[in-house]
Amino acid sequence: MTRIVIIGGGPGGYEAALVAAQLGAQVTVVEQDGPGGACVLTDCVPSKTLIATSVRKQALLDASMLGVHYTGGPDGDAGGVIADMPLVNKRVKELAQAQSADIAVRLAAEGVEVVRAAGRLVDPQVVRAGDRTIRADVVIVATGATPRILPSAEPDGERILTWRQIYDLEELPEHLIVVGSGVTGAEFAGAYRSLGSEVTLVSSRDRMMPNEDADAAEVLEEVYRRRGMNVMGRSRAESVKRTADGVVVTLEDGRTAEGSHCLMTVGMIPNTAGLGLEEAGVTLDRGGFIQVDKVSRTSAPGVYAAGDCTGVLMLASVAAMQGRIAVWHALGEAVQPLRLATVASNIFTDPEIAAVGVAQKAIEAGEIEANVVKLPLATNARAKMQGFNDGFVKLFCRPHTGIILGGVVVAPRASELILAVSVAVQQRLTVDQLAHTFAVYPSMSGSITEAARRLMQPMTPSGI
User: FAD/NAD(P)-binding domain: from which residue to which, for each copy (predicted)?
Assistant: First the structure.
């Protein structure tokens, strides 16, 4: 029986463990924080739980546009809609623990051993887990990553925070300054603005989320500004310091921004230090990320890696697929190399931004030839009924064959709507095939089939 030891219990680790156990391997997962790892306990699951709460509150704030008015609570209070942050944060933490417990039950049911300890490589076939030494035929490293810390903005857990510390606050921040306007910064900035905080978003680039679809980022920034957020573009933070009752963020150009709290969202660094990787022959890049090929192999025989510690694409879904691919390859199963071109991603802002396949910037740069159609969400009947005016559906296809290359959806629950486009990209469907697929009327998904219809090529009669 093949013995597999997995260092790290996040999506890259526990999904690999489940597949390995189902294929008959003897599996041990070494995880010091608990099943699910940081993704479930401190990062993805807690943040999306918080965001779900903020979306509900924003819906209540927007309900007056649909003729629904708030007249007061059960005690006759005529005040506004208030977020009870101790209760919100309690629910966030409890839900994360419950999800971790569910994963633990699933692993136990499959016969996977979980060792609660820090793990490291002694050599490519030996893992040290606490005071145990475990021999393995295959090792998978899935240790994730940690929020990047700037020396000039050291988090203190009270006023200067990482996203792993923000759920410990007892009150809603009066004025939250978010440093970093990438995906994480945009998500938290939008969530806390909807929950009731004054929010300043500090972006070092011309626009927020500079690596995402430009049209989508423009829509979101417009929504944020309309909701009262202060978005500071071209404003790189130099330092963050505490004051008597808050924080002051100093920008490189000398300007300052003052608030009650500061949330640092300036990237991630891999959890690869002190694991004995290089001594075991595992190659790291200059940033400390583990170098892997498309079947998750490292440079050390029998050692694979998955998830954020590889820096391939920091998504839970990608980590899970890397872990599964590692197991399939190690156990000699049929396996397809990781195809990043088919990865669907989502930004859990309000509205959400989902994308799959090629990006428009690649089309505009001449790297890919494609036809493009963009339909505003405001023309969709279901969107009108629900009062959703911001967003769009964008679809890309090859000019002659009509094969769908990708798309972008900006809408409420875009994470659900993108699946149709993702299936089309994965299965190389054409716009004709998608256009001839029934969509419910009225529905948001109707905009996807409508976009496909608009990309259909008119048939030319033969012989003409």
Answer: 3-323
